[in-house]
Amino acid sequence: QVQLVESGGGLVQAGGSLRLSCTASASTFNRHTVGWFRQAPRKEREFVAAIGWSAISTSYADSVKGRFTISRDDDKNTVYLQMNSLRPEDTAIYYCAAGGDIVIVTHGIVDYWGQGTQVIVSS
């Protein structure tokens, strides 16, 4: 059983930056692929980024490539999402999730979900 807690959301101006954190409660976290997803009001949840066990394999949605960076520190059981050059369309609740194969995780098939952290980008 892995419990995930997101933090780092907030209100920022367009062009600004935020760093989201996802911290897990179990030491098995290092054997999970971890992904970030987001859901804007009245829209479906969408994939943002994922990072595999090795921390070398990563995947990003086209909409965030070059702006967002996912990383992990397994000693701290934490995965980060550095978000730069934020745009109003990035406004959403951001969720951390943990699963197995990275390809499956990118499709939202995961074992555990966090509670979400809100990001609001003003124009």
Describe this structure in words.
- The chain is mostly beta strands and 123 residues long.
- Helices cover 4% and strands 48% of the residues.
- The chain has one helix and eleven strands, in the order E-E-E-E-E-E-E-E-E-H-E-E.
- Strands 2, 4, 5, 6, 9, 10 and 11 form a seven-stranded mixed β-sheet that branches.
- Strand 7 (68-73) and strand 8 form a beta hairpin.
- The protein is globular.
- The model has no long low-confidence stretch (mean pLDDT 94).
A few lines on this structure:
It contains one helix and eleven strands.
Offer a few descriptive terms.
123 residues; 7-stranded mixed sheet
List the helices and strands and how they pair.
Blueprint: E1 4-7, E2 10-13, E3 18-24, E4 33-39, E5 46-51, E6 58-60, E7 68-73, E8 78-83, E9 92-99, H1 102-106, E10 112-113, E11 117-122
Number of beta strands:
11
Helix content: under 10%
Average pLDDT score: 94
- The end-to-end distance, rounded to whole angstroms, is 40 Å
The biggest sheet amounts to: 7 strands, mixed
Uncertain segments are none
Tell me the series of helices and strands, N- to C-terminal. EEEEEEEEEHEE
Structural class by sheet pairing and helices: mainly beta
Task: Give the helix tally.
Answer: 1
